[in-house]
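Deviation from plan, reported transparently: S-adenosylmethionine complex.
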Amino acid sequence: MTAVRPSIRLEAHPDVVLCCIDWNMPVMTGFEFVVEARKRQEWRDITLMMVTTEGEHDQIVRALAAGAHEYVIKPFTPEIMLDKARGSLACWTRRCRHERRGGLASHGGWRGH
Amino acid sequence: MPSRLESGKEYLVESRLAPLARSAGSADVDSYIRGLRTNVAHHDAVVDALTTNETSWFRDRAPFTALKGSVLPDLIAKGRRHVKVWSAACSTGQEAYSVAITVADDFPALTLSIVGTDLSDRVVERARAGQYTQLEVNRGLPAATLVKYFQRSGPTFEIAPRLRQQVTFRKHNLLDAPPVGGPYDVVFLRNVLIYFDVATKRDVLRRVRSVLAPGGTLFLGAAETTIGIDDAWERVEAAGGSVYRLKEAKAA
Amino acid sequence: MSAVAGSLPTVDGEAIEAIAQDFFATMVDGEHGVLVPGYGEMAPLVDARFTWVDVHGETVTRVLVAVGRSTGDMLTRALLALPDDAPIGDADFADAAGEVVNVIGGNIKSLVHGGGALSLPQVADAAPDCGGAPLISETWFTWRGAPLTLTLWNLPEHAGSAGRP
Ligand SMILES: C[S@@+](CC[C@H](N)C(=O)[O-])C[C@H]1O[C@@H](n2cnc3c(N)ncnc32)[C@H](O)[C@@H]1O
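Because the crystal trials were delayed, the predicted structure below was used instead.
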């Protein structure tokens, strides 16, 4: 699946509300993914959360500026994930006028191949 | 705390004391423990190794929502431009710094002095240093806040000096007289009363009363209450969180 | 500060230990104290597997984890939350081993001067060719009674697998 761009996978799942993205991935970096995802009008309601071992100050700033809502530095515990996901989904819910139900998606980081 | 371990968790004692046993040159944990009866010098280290210092940024959220939505606005409405806070049993300082961040974000005109205290030398030192590991900054700290108020320094994240300057950390035992520097407008006393028996809880709450400013606010942990322990307090709802205040007659 | 030619970069061994232990405590074991620094004589790795990432900074630092295959299988089950008796195929093993070194390597990046891009993880049955590169740090642990090593190598410039910006 090396050539599959993560963005294409998302299209097959219109119910996705949260997308967890690693920085280090084959094909494109998580940062590039955030930039691309934010250009798409139809995805503006998806919460984007970076989940990565990369934790430089500058990287976090860039990811947030590009449109990621949250940033979790690995390692994390289940509580940390839930807390961060809840926090960023709460922002999303506030933005979203109509109720929508959906699942959680994770883009498997460098394991995408 | 030490005396109340769930059964099946004994190995935790073993794993927490093993490093101490090794650095003391004991053959194993058992012989280290036997040696403790005579070697008082090691007691602090043992208490420290067995004490839970668990904490996080904006822990439980609700107290900080109440601080921002009600407690601080009320103080400002009364004309206050400086606020004094005591973060009691502050562990590694996240609670105290969370208060500083709340004020910096939402009440920039307010000046602040925070006293953070804890029984353990080790955590007080860590709080003072204001340096947190990657794992620690993950717990409860929104990424936007992290990049705004922290700088990376090697493997740790360091709190901004302008926030650190607002907080003084000191070693202090809650069973002793309260720290000087009061009266405090806001006292955080969270997730520590649970470790005490009722008489001690009452004692500690009484001491807190003596340094609480008139109309001052007490925050307890989510599983803690004054009800049935010290009747001088009443529970008040404040912007979605529960806080404790001294009843009118006593506060006057 | 730049590394003086001829002298090896130094890294904080205690910090490396803490990074590995935090990773295991959170994502593998759910508690501290299962991955412990080894002392005394290290037992040999049985049917060893190797996994590594390269940190591109002022120089290239290779972060290499070695573990016996059956220990690695246990580690895979723990990390991927699989049942105790789940058979572990090479793909799952590579996933888990790669995750271990990705997280540990990425965290170690903060200890390395000018730490920049991180390569994607590699997994192999044999130790990678480090081209005679000097060892800059060596730590070994026991995890559930079996050994696991974590070593850092100072690779010559322009060596190593490509990183990403
Ligand atoms: C679970 S932590 C709570 C930290 C923080 N207040 C919070 O809620 O996140 C409990 C802290 O209480 C401290 N402690 C325990 N007994 C104490 C005492 N008698 N006096 C002062 N601090 C004490 C411990 O050292 C530990 O740091």
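The CA atoms of residues 52 and 101 of chain C lie 6 Å apart. We consider this an acceptable substitute for the interim report.
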